Amino acid sequence: MDFIGVEAVLRSTPQTPSVAPQMRHMRRDADVMSSAEMHSYLRRVALPDDSLTSPVDASLLRRIADAQLSRIPFENLDIHRKRPVEVSVAAIEEKLLRRERGGICYELNGLLARALRTVGFDAQLVGAAVVTPNGPGLPLGHVAIVVGFAGETWLVDVGFGGDAIVHQVDAGAVAGWDVRFPSGASYLTDATTRPLADFAAMAWWHSTSPLARFTSGIVCSLTEGSVRKTLSCRPDEQYQLAVTDGALRSARDLDGDEALAVLAAEFGIRLPELPRPARF
What we know:
27% of the residues lie in helices and 32% in strands. The protein is of the alpha+beta class. The protein has one domain (9-204): 2-Layer Sandwich (Arylamine N-acetyltransferase fold), CATH 3.30.2140.20. Strands 1, 3, 4, 5, 6, 7, 8 and 9 form an eight-stranded antiparallel sheet that branches. A five-stranded antiparallel sheet has the order 2-10-11-12-13. β5 (142-149) and β6 (152-160) form a beta hairpin. The longest helix is centred in the middle third of the chain and has 15 residues, at 105-119. The chain is globular, with a radius of gyration of 18 Å.
């Protein structure tokens, strides 16, 4: 089993004839990056141009996913500047590549899927429901990537707030996957691959609803190897920088100037002023 960032447990949902063929015969989304866009992506994730001509195999899949996970933050800062998340290709590339920002699952996995298709993988988006204490959340509340190559199928996710996964699965035997992380977080995928546009409504909900977890506070996180750095802030509290490495964790509170400097130095995000958690 191969994972990025953390170890996770995948359980298969029993196959049902009415939905399993949708996973086996995935709708092909041929959307790929132009040469200029792909070179911009490779620079953003600090990969060499020879990645474009590397064999399309598990090693390349892990290398690209790991590079993006360690270079493009999971963050919701714009939501607290009252700028809803847009899931169009143009909006994602403008934000994550040209402005060198991060994003939430739809942006991060949307960008990665397009990059993977460009180098030769069959990468498709699949919806998921995040599991809460009250059971599964809203459909399409999360998105992961189903990747196919050389007769193999892999589940890939670099957009779950630092928890991440690259794992081979048996598409012919399941209708979805139950993904569980040691942190206690988990989600259930569905069995239908979808275009990016299908997630627009949920991206808006996450950006504007007081019931969404992204509106409850600010978070910015990067994971490199076993080390995860997270800058966070809840309403009426100070910013905090937490660093975890396996079972080890350290945290410290930051004033406004320190938090703005940490955003630039640790996460590569340069803003004219520090956002505060908004009220929704």
